TrEMBL record, chains A, B:
UniProt protein name: Substrate-binding domain-containing protein
GO molecular function: DNA-binding transcription factor activity; transcription cis-regulatory region binding
UniProt lineage: Bacteria, Bacillati, Actinomycetota, Actinomycetes, Streptosporangiales
Entries under Pfam families matching the protein: LacI, Peripla_BP_3
Amino acid sequence: MVTRDGRRRVTISDVASHAQVSTTAVSKVLRNAYGVSEAMRAKVQAAIDELGYRPHAAARAMRGRTFTIGVVLPHIRNPFFADILDGFDEELAAARYQAIIVQGGSSDAAAESRALDALVDRQVDGILIVAPVIPRARLEEMARNTPTVVLGRHDRSAVYDSVLDDDEVGAELAVEHLIALGHRRIAHISQKGLGPSVALLHTIRARTYERVMAEHGLAEHIAVVATSYTEEGGYQAARELLARTPRPTAVFAGSDQAAFGALAAVHEAGLAVPGDVSVAGYDNARVTALAHISLTTIDQDGAIMGKTAGRLLLERIGGRTSSVRFSVTPTLVARRSTAPPAIR
Amino acid sequence: MVTRDGRRRVTISDVASHAQVSTTAVSKVLRNAYGVSEAMRAKVQAAIDELGYRPHAAARAMRGRTFTIGVVLPHIRNPFFADILDGFDEELAAARYQAIIVQGGSSDAAAESRALDALVDRQVDGILIVAPVIPRARLEEMARNTPTVVLGRHDRSAVYDSVLDDDEVGAELAVEHLIALGHRRIAHISQKGLGPSVALLHTIRARTYERVMAEHGLAEHIAVVATSYTEEGGYQAARELLARTPRPTAVFAGSDQAAFGALAAVHEAGLAVPGDVSVAGYDNARVTALAHISLTTIDQDGAIMGKTAGRLLLERIGGRTSSVRFSVTPTLVARRSTAPPAIR
DNA sequence: CTCGGGATGGGTATCGTTATCCATCGCGGA
DNA sequence: TCCGCGATGGATAACGATACCCATCCCGAG
């Protein structure tokens, strides 16, 4: 391959001739393969360093591995994904794998499917897909050919690994917390238009909200507005909720990002948090801990989840075929965005 | 290539035999090359659709294009980058290019350099690098071989295109705004440890702050704390500033993310924004507009910058060799985080 | 002294696609 | 009738690495 400035990229043959050995020998050193003496290894490594050789990932992809992991995120705007990636990257870096991220389009099954194809076309060694909305069959078809870890989805599969938190426990914690504070008119912000699958985490959070409300005799106060787990979605949903009479005294948003939007709507309506309306989120994205936000939320340790996803993926690439499911138990983090309702 | 479930991936030869033509003909259709009749095109396209053929990017990379653009972001946590990517992706999708994102490690030159290498190894057709801190020589070496657009850096180059805002104007707007409100003890939060290069945007923002302060006879009140453009950095810097006696009445943070951290520190210290301390940021990330945050900031239109970066990159891939520099003029967006200082 | 086998290094087909030739066909002009 | 040329389709050598298989060397056992 000739580069634009006329210099050839350094290839394995350059290294081989420089070290006076065969390309096979160099390849073996690169792959840590069996049948290389210490002397050979040293000689080849010296030539590699001297020439500044770097393996050509595309060429590798034709026969072997690419040492590349593809990550599909709905959208990089969600700060919780940054927490996940911190743990994921850390785990991968140790194994000299590189993560590449593609955006799957928040809750858009077609876009998500395209993103997945793009990764397969690029011959990644493994895939991490976060909160996917595509059908399970599609996921499994993918996973049969490429090691796959699915993060944040509840259906079980024999062909991919799952990393998730117990959304039922988490949602229960949030709703119970608000009820314990004395709230009765508690509303919920969810996502819409993704089918009724109980595998999707927003469905579980919404159903759990309804169940817990009913268990406490608050069935008549159930109010779910389904928009999306984004600031915009949270804002729209909260505006709609605040316009109702009587308006809710507390809002449980299905994600921190949506809670952010809800906070904005509450302030914009001239109401105080938590004085007039309590707001709780879900994810405990690091940014929610900041003092001026201080959002009550449900913690699922993103960094741990990401780190685990990385480990599971490496194991699968290493040959494991059994299916693993890793679940973290969420906890309530009560901060200053929730308080008892005003007495009336 | 045999996939794990025993099925071969559909290749160009499968399409060729199915359509009863040569692989060359199929390749020509795929590339829109010269020398294909309408009949041929239709026949081949039908076979492609029937078999669900998708080009193998890695194999393509061995001889031609990958239709992949690499994006190096310091870290996906910064919400302003999401704004940039929205515009960028939109522009690329129309040309059937796929963007892949790698994290460059906030302000870590070694990590950034590795991320860049990773993209080159993967044979991307072009590179967008956002707010890089590596030496210009390294950037140019890269750009000579791969079409490159640099976003958010002020050095001029004949080999890559630049997209940026006028940071001098922006910083001036912010400081002048605070001065016009009546502030005198105005502090600034910057980044540290990246060398004194005047090409780096934080350097320009910091120097402009100092210049404007001096021009208004406020040289004695200049106070710069250099941490990093992150929430954590903004928080640490603000804590240090608030501990000083007398403490500043206004803080101009070099980025919205740092301003976020500063807001947290102010609240934690039991002080009010803007009553006790005014805070201004830079970037106008969409999230800053939310009512409960309502951060005064400097707008540089991220979506436009991203869209332009995409266009320039496609042009370069298309063969343009002249160098382009696209600069947006920032504007002040005054919100509720700034106000006149309390009378004392 | 030969033989067997482990350790080491190398030859080479192969992965899927592109790009550079080369071959063929049909048709109009000399 | 023959020649030349444009239009079209195909054969094939790369691209850079891997992995299978084979060749060689050395050493101890029989």
